[in-house]
Structures are given as structure tokens and as C-alpha cells.
Design goal:
The complex is a heterodimer of chains A (302) and B (273). Chain A has 302 residues and is mostly helical. Helix content of chain A is 75%, strand content 1%. Chain A folds into 2 domains: 5-38; 63-297, MetI-like fold (Orthogonal Bundle), CATH 1.10.3720. Chain A has 14 helices and 2 strands. Classes of the chains: A mainly alpha (302), B mainly alpha (273).
Chain lengths: 302, 273
């Protein structure tokens, strides 16, 4: 009795569903190839060419990359701006998101209301948010009016090289930290009460409990959130395009904006493709560095 | 003592929330102030009367109705396309057996790391070749094929016990039947999350519409608002009226779908960012 059963089982296991699989995969796979895979390969090829929008394209090897790294002075400024933005944005975003998450979960009432309020700008989007801050941070806007009221020196936020990047970071953090806050709130709620009780019994105060017990418990989700925030912040574009166009004097010019300008303004598609791949490698390197640090900070047993 | 601390904490966080929401409050306030008064009593919340004419000025200057329609249409179309094709592919990756399956899935996953900007230039050229530039097809089709949906739904399908499928198979149910009558109904929360994420992403999207559209006919709300600011950049009361108009639909959507959105984010940690 058991023999034939086994046979049937084995036969089934080895059977391939290729025919059905093709039908199920086809719609997505065809789109994926046309709109992701082919452009990706093509972009790699283009980065090795001098490729104007119209006219002849010529193979130049690694010249685009060499020019970017050795001759393009603006590229280094753009690179520095991007790194400054990423560092400031990620740090502020994660710290504020965590602080608000801890605060909101500590409330016994209305925590859903406060969570919704701080998440709201995520739904408003970065373009509308930037419009609002362009007004609030304008020469005679609300913020400067308040600063002057207290006798302070009111800066020209988006208009001066010293403060433009700060203004961009402010908008971005205001609009974006709610996302990580939601992740952290659910992480905090997932930490078992028994763990917190145990820490209390051992005589740990609130700060110790947070850093030594709660944070290690939720470190995988915090780590993942940090990595995703880093990746998305490297791609900053909308807020600088809408508020400053990279100005004044390229103070807010970042990698994607630089790429956009070369591709769609100067129509140097090969050069722009090279910038795109540098962006990719920046993301890859930083993510790899974070992954390497992971063992030190992330606890997967909790 | 504990109670007192709680009350103090609530009072203080209410204050912080008000300051946090001040930009939005102030946006509405400015949009209802007479144009001439905007720069005089900057700090006050109200003008001498409620100036609804700002909304009229904004609405008549630019086709916001059209932008709104485009945003909704593009969002819905992208969402339907994404959910259907992702669910089918995810099922193949989760349950069907064929050679090279895991390698193919890994290729999908690897592209999640590659930002849109890397593919944007060839993509732009492909769209021109297809004659899709400045069309709904360009706005909806390419964004519908990201690996994210496949990845997310595959995880969801894997969590459904195989035994249920086996039982259906013994009862003579075909693969298509299993997919349509068992897997899909059991994955409603996952499908809903993906649908909400996709819509939100499309709704907020700026970079993609900026590149693939050139006329008002196909512009979406964020892009329309940006065009408006180019012409009315210093007419603050009109600009804030336009911004308010562009924000309202998203806020309504948020109020309705908040629960699903927040749960989806807490689970996946990456959609709708």
C-alpha cells in the first residue's frame, strides 16, 4: 500500500509546472524586461558612450567616469551636497521618529490620533510640502517674522548658500519622519512586557531600559528602516527641483538633479548615465558598509 | 503622581503637535487672506475677511480639475495593473515548480536595489520609440512593473498553508482555480496593502510625470502645482489656495485608508515611502 503512494508522491514532486508558470509570469515578466531589465543594461552601455540626444554617438570607454572624477569640479560639489543631505536627513529623521514613537507609545490615551497627525505630511507629498515651506521660509514669511519679533537675524532661507540646504533638510524631515515613526511604533509595541518588567525589577531606569533592553529587541526593524531611509535619501530630487533648482550657486545641487540636468537640459545622455551608475554605486557601498556594521548593532535573537 | 505625569505628557505633546501642524494651518489661513494683506499681518491667522477669491483665481488660472482627474485615473490604472500582474507572478514564484525559478526571482530582487534614475534615460528613449511620450500609457504602464509588488505578495502567498491547496487539488481544482478561488481571497490584506502603496506612490510621484509628460492634458497634481508656482510664485495667497486644493484629495484618501496604510508599512517597512 505504501509503495504506490510513494511513487505517486515522487512523480508529483519532480513534475515541472513550466507551462502554467509561463502563463502566470508572462504579463509581469514582459513588462519587467522592457521597463527595467533592458533599460538597465542599456544604461550601462550608454555610460560608456558620448551620446547626444540627436546625432552620432561614439564609444569613449570609461572617459565619462574619468571626466567626472578628475575634471568636473561641480560633480564633487554635487557629491558633497548629496552626502551632507543624506547624513543630516537620515540622522534627524531616525532620531526624531524614534523619539516621537517612544513618546506616543508611552501615552495611555489618544496615541492613534498623534500618530495620524505626525504621519499626515507623508500623504501630502513632498511637492506640496515644499510649496508650504517656500512660503513659511520666505523673506517675510512666518518664520522670519517670528525671528524678527525676538530681535534675531532673519536669514533668506532658500535664497542664500549658507541656509538653502538646511531649508531643504527641514522640509524633508518634516514631511518624511512619520514613516519611520510608524515602523518604530509597531516595533515598540512588539517588545514583550515581560522583558520591560524584568528590566525594571533589575533596577534599570527608563533610559537604561530603552538603550539596553528595548532598542536591542527591535534592532532588526530599526536597522532595516535606516537602510531604506539611506537608499531613498540618496535619490533626493523633488524638493530641490521645486524649491531651488539646485541653487543658489549649486548649494543644493544633488546627484539626481545633476543627472537630470545633464540628460534633459544639456542632452548629454552618456554622461548622465555615468552619473546614474555612480549614484547606484554610492547606494551600494553605503548599504554594504551598513550591512557590515550590522553584526555589532543588530540582535536577531531578540 | 503617575496620572499627573500622563496628563502633563498629553498637554505637552498636544502643543508639539500644534507646532508641527502649524505649516498646514498657516497654509489654509494664507489661502483665505486677501491678496493685499498677506505680507502685512504675516503672523495673524485671519485677514479682514475670508477671501474665497484666491481659490477662484487659482482654479481659473490652471486646469486643476484636469490634473486631479489625471492623478486619480493614473493612480487607479497603475494600481490595477500592478496588483494583477504582481499577484500572478508572485504565485508562480511562490508555488509553481520550474527550472531556474529561484534564479529568476533573485534577478527580480536584485533590481530592487537599483534606483529608478539609473533606468530613466533608456526608459525615456524606449517610450519615444513606442510613441508613448506624453500619454496615459507612459504614466501608468512602466511604473506598474516594479519588483516590489512581486516580492511583497510572494511573501504573503508563502504564508498560506500548502495543505489547503493540496486539498483543493485532490478535489479536482485546477491551478487557475486554486489561484482565483483560494489564494486571492485568502490574501486580501496583502493585496489591499499593495494596492494602497501603489496608489500612494503614484499619487505623490513627481519625477516620472515630469519626464514623460509635456502638455496639461496629461499632467498630474504635483506637476500642475509646480507649473502653477512657476507663474504665481509670489502670489502667496493663490499659491496656498492651489496647494490646499492639491492636498485635499490625498488627505481624504488618508482618512479612509489610514488603517490599511499604517498596517502595511508596519509589516513591510518599505512600500509608499
Amino acid at each position: 500500500m505504501s509503495m504506490p503512494m510513494n511513487k505517486i508522491g515522487k512523480k508529483k514532486k519532480g513534475k515541472s509546472d513550466l507551462g502554467i508558470a509561463i502563463i502566470f509570469l508572462a504579463p509581469n515578466l514582459i513588462g519587467f524586461m522592457i521597463f527595467t531589465l533592458v533599460p538597465m543594461v542599456f544604461s550601462m552601455v550608454m555610460s560608456l558612450y558620448d551620446w547626444p540626444l540627436t546625432g552620432e554617438h561614439t564609444f569613449v570607454g570609461l572617459d565619462n567616469f574619468i571626466t567626472l572624477f578628475t575634471q568636473d569640479v561641480l560633480f564633487w560639489k554635487v557629491m558633497k551636497n548629496t552626502l551632507v543631505y543624506v547624513a543630516a536627513y537620515v540622522a534627524l529623521n531616525v532620531v526624531i521618529a524614534m523619539a516621537m514613537a517612544v513618546w506616543i507609545t508611552s501615552l495611555k490615551k489618544a496615541n492613534e490620533f498623534f500618530r495620524s497627525a505626525f504621519f499626515l505630511p507623508m500623504m501630502i507629498g513632498i511637492v506640496s510640502s515644499t510649496m508650504i515651506f517656500k512660503w513659511i521660509l520666505s523673506e517675510n514669511g512666518l518664520v522670519n517674522t517670528i525671528i524678527r519679533l525676538f530681535g534675531g537675524d532673519a536669514p533668506n532661507w532658500f535664497g542664500s548658500t549658507a541656509t538653502a540646504m538646511i531649508a531643504v533638510v527641514i522640509v524633508s524631515v518634516w514631511q518624511g519622519f512619520g514613516y519611520n515613526m510608524v515602523i518604530f511604533i509597531s516595533g515598540l509595541l512588539g517588545v514583550p512586557d515581560s522583558v520591560k518588567e524584568a528590566a525594571k525589577i533589575d533596577g534599570a531606569n527608563a533610559v537604561q531600559t530603552f538603550f539596553r533592553v528595548i532598542l536591542p529587541c527591535m534592532s532588526p526593524s530599526v536597522f532595516f528602516a535606516v537602510v531604506m531611509t539611506v537608499i531613498s535619501s540618496f535619490q533626493v530630487f523633488d524638493q530641490t527641483y521645486v524649491s531651488t533648482m539646485g541653487g543658489p550657486n549649486n548649494a543644493t545641487n544633488t546627484l539626481v538633479l545633476y543627472l537630470y540636468n545633464h540628460a534633459f537640459k544639456y542632452q548629454r545622455l552618456g554622461y548622465a548615465s555615468a552619473i546614474a551608475w555612480i549614484l547606484f554605486f554610492c547606494i551600494l557601498i553605503v548599504t554594504a558598509l551598513l550591512m557590515k556594521q550590522q553584526k555589532r548593532f543588530v540582535n536577531y535573537e531578540g | 503622581m503617575k496620572r499627573k505625569k500622563q496628563i502633563l505628557s498629553i498637554v505637552f505633546i498636544t502643543f508639539v503637535t500644534l507646532i508641527f501642524l502649524l505649516p498646514l494651518i498657516y497654509m489654509v489661513s494664507t489661502s483665505l487672506k486677501p491678496k493685499a494683506e498677506v505680507l502685512q499681518n504675516t503672523a495673524s491667522l485671519f485677514g479682514s475677511y475670508l477671501a474665497g477669491e484666491n481659490y477662484e483665481r487659482a482654479w481659473n488660472a490652471f486646469p486643476f480639475g484636469r490634473y486631479l482627474f489625471n492623478s486619480i485615473f493614473v493612480g487607479v490604472a497603475t494600481t490595477i495593473l500592478t496588483v494583477i500582474t504582481s499577484a500572478m507572478a508572485a504565485y508562480a514564484f511562490a508555488r509553481l515548480k520550474f527550472r531556474g525559478r529561484d534564479k529568476l526571482f533573485f534577478a527580480y530582487l536584485a533590481t530592487l536595489m537599483v534606483p529608478l534614475q539609473v533606468t530613466i534615460i533608456p526608459l525615456y528613449m524606449i517610450l519615444r520609440m513606442l510613441g508613448w511620450h506624453n500619454s496615459y500609457a507612459a504614466l501608468t504602464v512602466p511604473p506598474a512593473f516594479t519588483a516590489f509588488g512581486v516580492f511583497m505578495l510572494r511573501q504573503f502567498f508563502l504564508s498560506i498553508p500548502v495543505e489547503i491547496e493540496e486539498a483543493a487539488k485532490i478535489d479536482g481544482c485546477s491551478r487557475y482555480g486554486i489561484f482565483a478561488r483560494i489564494i486571492l481571497p485568502m490574501s486580501k490584506p496583502g493585496l489591499a496593502s499593495l494596492a494602497i502603496f501603489t496608489f500612494v506612490n503614484s499619487w505623490k510621484s513627481f519625477f516620472w510625470p515630469l519626464i514623460v509628460t509635456s502638455t496639461d492634458e496629461f499632467k498630474t497634481l504635483p506637476l500642475g502645482l509646480y507649473m502653477f508656482s512657476g507663474q504665481y510664485g509670489t502670489d502667496w495667497s493663490a499659491l496656498m489656495a492651489a496647494t490646499t486644493i492639491s492636498i485635499i484629495p490625498g488627505v481624504i484618501f488618508y482618512i479612509i485608508f489610514q488603517k490599511g496604510l499604517v498596517q502595511g508599512i508596519a509589516l513591510s517597512g518599505m512600500g509608499g515611502r
